[in-house]
Amino acid sequence: MPSAFWPLLLCLLLFPLRVPAVAGSLVGEGYGDELSEVITDDGSRMIDVTEDYLRSLRPTSEMLIVLKQRVAITADLELSKLINFSTLEGPGQFELMNNGVDLTIHGAVNAPFKELFLGEGHVHLMQKYAKVDWFGAKADAVFNEADLELRSYGTKSYHGFRKALAAVKARGRIEFGYGGYAMIDTSEDVRTRFGRERGPVRVSRGALTLYLWYENGDKVLYDSVEVYGQGMGKTYLLSERFNEEGEQQGGIEYSPTRGQGWNDTDDNIREQATYTTTVRPGQNYLVLKDSWMNRPFTPGQSVFVRNGGNGFDQDNGQPNVVKEVRDSLILFEYPFQRDLSLANASSIGGLSAFTMPPEQGIVQVEFLRDRGYSSRKPPGGRDKMFSYGNNLFQLVSDDGDNRYTIRNVGGKSNDPQGTQYAANALRVMKSRTVFTTTTTLRGAWVRDMSIRANYNAFTISNFIDCGAERVHMLYKANEEGGLTLNGDGGLNFSMKDCVVEAAPGQWAGSQIARSMTNFVSEGTQWINIKHAIIEFSEGTKFINDKFLFDYTNTEKTAPTGDKNPKGCVAVGLTTGNTLFRDCEFVQMGGDAVVANFDINQWSATAGGRITFEDCYMNALDVDALVSVKSPGLFINGLRATGVVTSLFGGTGSGPLNTDSVSVTGVGQDGQTAWAVGGVSKITDFEFIGSFDQVFNLPPESLIMRNSVAIWQGFRYDKMDNSRVVDGLLVSGAGRKGRSNFRSDVEMEIHGMPLVTNVPAVKFDATMNSLDRFEFTLIRPKLYFKVSNDEYRNDGVGENRTVTFDGQSN
After folding, report:
1. How far apart are CA 710 and CA 689, in angstroms?
2. What angle is formed at CA 304 by the lines to CA 604 and CA 673, rounded to 5 degrees?
C-alpha cells in the first residue's frame, strides 16, 4: 500500500469528494437508498455496490469500500486482499442468499458491533478477526449481576459466536463487546443449514466451545484462537440452566474430553508404537522398540506417551508434540516432567504362568489382581490393548473367573516366541505406548470477560498451550453437579489474574487430573472452590493466588464433595510436583486447608513433592492447616493464624513397614515409599492462634527447623481431660506402635499450657531409634488438676525444653 494512501483516506472520510464513478454500475441491486463510498488512490466516489460490481473488481492497489447498502451474494465470491471494507451504524451488510454460498474476504473488515453478515452461508475472513455481533450476536441479555443468572434475552447469541469461529479459523481473533450476551443456541433448522453436508452442528453445551462439533460426530478444531471481551464485569457471557436437549450448560470447553480421537483402539493398533523401558524426567526424547513404528509420527503432531494407567481408566503419562523423527528416535518439543520408565508404570496386577505364543497367536491366562483390589477392572473390554511388562497384548475374550484369552500383537517387538513367564513375573497395565491424539487443541486463549456456568466451568482436556486471562467464572451448581475446573489431561495450561467462584451459598469442586501436566495459575482468586489435584498430574503451580473456602455456609457441593477432604486443596498420592508460592489461604470450617486425597490409591511410583514457599494461611475452626503424608511435603516460609485442632495432620512421606513395595512404589494403602518420595522438610513456619495439638498423627520422615507456634487458646473452650489423653499440645495420640521413618523435629512453642501434677506432655507412638523431637516451651501456662475435668490455672512457668527420642520414649 502506498504510504500516502492512509492520510488521504482519513481526509476523504472526513470530507468526501464528488468525482466521476469508477468502472461499475451506479444503479443496481444493492439494498437501501444510499450509495456506498469507494476510496482509492484516485479519490472517493459514490457507487451502487452490488454483487456484480464486486465481481468486476480487479484492483492493483489498496481500496476501501465504505459499505452503506445491503449486498446480496447469490454465489461463491472471493475478494482480493486489496479490497477492504468499512461500515458504520445503520445500513451496510452482506446477505448470503443461501447456505451453500461462500464469501471469502482477504482484505480487512472494520465495522462496529452490529450485524454485518446475514444468512447461513459461510464467511471466510482471511485477516483472522471478527466481532461476534457481525454474525448476529447481540449484547441485549437481562441478568442478575449478583449471580449472573440469566433473566431474559432478546437475542440468542451462541450461533453468532459459532459462525465467527468458522469465519476466522486457526490463529483467529474473536471479539465480544460491552454488555451481556445470552449464549443460547439457535434452532435445529438453522444449525442444519449451517452444517451443510455434515448435517446439524451439535447444540451448544456452554457459553463457549472452542471447536465445531457436529451431530454426526465430526469435530473441527482451530488452533491458536483468541476469544476476548472488554474486561471482567464489562463483557458477560450468560448461559441458561438447560439447553434444548436438557443438558446443563457449562462455561468454556476448550476441546473434546480426554480420549476423544486418541488412536489407542483396535482399529488403530498400527498407530500405537511401543517404546523402550527407560524415560527419565527432563528427557525430551524416547526410543521406539523398532524404527518401523515411527510411520504415524511427523513433526508438529500431538501425541500422548502412556506409561500404564489405573484400572484402565486414568492414564499415566504426558501429552507432547513431535519435533523430529530420526529412525527409532523421536524428539519432542517439551521435556517429560516425570519418570515414565517401565519400573514406574501404573499397573493393577499380574498374569498366571504362560509361554509367549507366536505373533498374532493366542494363549489362555488368569488375571491375578493385586491383593486388596477386588474392584479393579481386568485388562479391559474385548479387543482392548494392554501391556504385560513391555509387551503389547490384545484381549480376545473374557472366559470368566478372571480367565482371559489374549493375543500376542504382531509387529510391536514383543519378547520372542517361547519366552516363559512365571506367575506374576511382569505387571499388567494399560498399554504402554505412544500414539497420536487427533483432536488436540493448541494455543487457544480466552480473555477479559465474565461467564456464568451451570455445569463444568472450564473443560480442559486434549489441549496443549492453552489458557485464560482476566476471566471471571461464576459457577452455580444445579441438579447434575459438575466441576468448576474439569482438567482431564493436557499440557501447559495457564490461568492469569482470573476469578473463579461458586455462586453465593455454594461451594464446588475442581479437578486437575489424569496426567494433566504443567497447570499454572498466577494471580487467580478461587472462591469456595475445592481443588483435587490427582491421578498422575504433574507440575501444578499456584503463584500469588488467593483461596477462600467457607465450608460453614454452603448448600450445594460438587458430585464428589463428600468423598474427599473438605478444604481448599487435596493432593493425590500419585500427584507429581505441586507448588504454592506467595499464596494466601482463608478457610472457615472443614478438614484441612491442604490435605491428601485420591479417588483410589493404586500401585504406582509416587510423584514429586508439595511445596509451600512464602505462603499465608488463616484457618478458622479447621481440623488442621496441612495434612500431607504423601508424596512428601516441603515448607519454606508459611505464616498462619486461626483456630485449629492441630497444626499438622498426617505429615511426612514414609511407608508402612509392612508394605511389599515400600522401596519401589506405593503400598497397598497408598503410603508413599520414603526412598521415592523423599524426606519431608518444614522450615520457617510460624503460627499464631488457638490449637490443641502440633501433630494429630506422628510424623514420618520429617525434618523440621526454624518453626514457632504462639498459643492463644484451645480450639474449644477450656482445659479438660481430653487435652491430657490426646497428648496435650505436643503430639497426637494414635497409631501407637507404628514405627516412624527418621523424623527430626525442633519447634518453639510460646504460651502452651502444662498440667503440673499429671504426665501431660507425652508422645504416644513408637519411634525409630534415630527419631528426635525437641520442643522448646516459652512461658508455658501452668495448670493443676484438682479433680476430673477440673483444672486450676497457676500462672506462667519457666522456659523448658521437652525432648522425645527412640531411647527415652
Report:
1. 6
2. 15
